[in-house]
Amino acid sequence: NLFPPQHLDDDTVSGSNWITENNVQHSLSQTTKTTRKPYCGYKQQILSKREQEEQESLLAAIQWPKPSDGKIAFVQSTDPARSDFVIVKPSGFFKVGDQLEVLVHMKDFQGKPKQYGGDYLQARIHSPLLKAGATGRIVDCHNGLYKVFFTLLWPGEVKVSVSLVHPSEAIQVLLRLREERPDRVYFKSSFKSGRYSETTECNVCLPGDLPVCNFTDLYTGEPWFCYKPRKLSCASRISHAKGGYQKGLLTQEESLFFQSDVNIKRPILSSGPDSVIVKPKAFT
After folding, report:
1. What is the chain's pLDDT, residue by residue, as a tens digit (284 residues)?
2. Is the dihedral of CA 18, 19, 24, 29 positive or negative?
3. CATH code for the domain defined by 74-172+253-278
4. I need a surface site. Which of 45, 119, 224, 263 has the fewest CB within 10 A?
């Protein structure tokens, strides 16, 4: 999953903290020496041929376009303020049920046209007075151009809005974090016996080589692990909750791709008309 970037650097408890015993935190360095390489239970699973085919199909379905070059400088990344869209045949005759086509042209912070795709766009048509709206189908042409198709569902003036949610360069950072830091969102479970309690970190992947409790679902096979409490058994778990987010995962250069007032959820303006008039569908 692509995790919202605004949480990547939250000032929360680090995932390198292992066990809290009666609300007293113990860092990994104070307990057992561990490695950064996480233990991922799902990687130990043996898939059947059908499961392997399903996995490959799902991975292919979520495959995201990548730039041809490796590292992209910020000034070469997508700038929504310099990008624009145009309505194809804005003065054409439209009626309810017709398709409206929009072309989006992406440019970088130098004003140069982008040569690759992968931007995360959202597009919609809406009529504020009618409180009506609908989303569009976006086609990435992989050359900095995007085609958006809308089905016109109601009569009257219909406005088009396009916004950049994440530039393609930010998507690549999120994909890297997904692969390299599967523990970036961490969870915790409480274990209790009598008046004594401990809390440990839980996840699909756990950093280090400390002993773990295996809570993998026996029916679905969905893997889940918690660090084993130092004095309690795995069977003494009584609750489960989200622990927090790892912080400091972005480099200084990567953080430039996640600026809320610059390139996250920013509107892309039209270089021409941004609305069309739709006539009611004729009945015969």
Report:
1. 333 333 333 322 233 444 444 444 443 333 333 344 556 766 666 788 998 999 899 988 888 887 766 788 999 999 999 999 999 998 889 999 999 999 999 999 999 999 999 999 999 999 999 999 999 999 999 999 999 999 999 999 999 999 999 999 999 999 888 888 877 888 999 999 999 999 999 998 887 778 999 998 888 878 889 999 999 999 999 999 998 888 889 999 999 999 999 999 999 999 999 999 999 987 65
2. negative
3. 2.60.40.10
4. 45
